[in-house]
Amino acid sequence: MDRNNKxxxxxxxxxxxxxxxxxxxxxxxxxxGGSKDTPASTNNSPTTTSEAPQETKPAKWDIxxxxxxxxxxxxxxxxxxxxxxxxxxxxxxxxxxxxxxESCSYGNAFIDxxxxxVIYSNGELSTKSKSTY
Length: 133
Hints:
The protein has 133 residues and is an alpha+beta fold. It has a domain at 63-132: Beta-lactamase Inhibitory Protein, Chain:B, domain 1, CATH 3.30.1450.10. Helix content is 25%, strand content 23%. It has helices at residues 15-32, 63-69, 76-83; strands spanning 89-94, 100-106, 114-121, 124-132. A hairpin with a 2-residue loop joins β3 (114-121) and β4.
């Protein structure tokens, strides 16, 4: 008998159709929910719904107030105390007979919405500028 002369099975009589249906039912059942036998919470202490957890936000840095506190002749430690920030972005350069120069940035453009740039000459504040965003 020739294989090509066999009549084709109806689609619902094929094995792969039923395997597919079982897989789809399994996916739907697992997505619908898990076992209801496990307790929702293992914490036995009473909870109240009126006390929602409060998000603590860091205090906003007042760039204007910090900038106003800076004055010529301040040391780096005094500037950091006045601004409430430490600089993690400083660049030093040797100016020869003029001495050492250091440029430091305080604040973050994304977090603080601004920054203060301070230039120290021989360890003392000589120039300051601010940028707000």
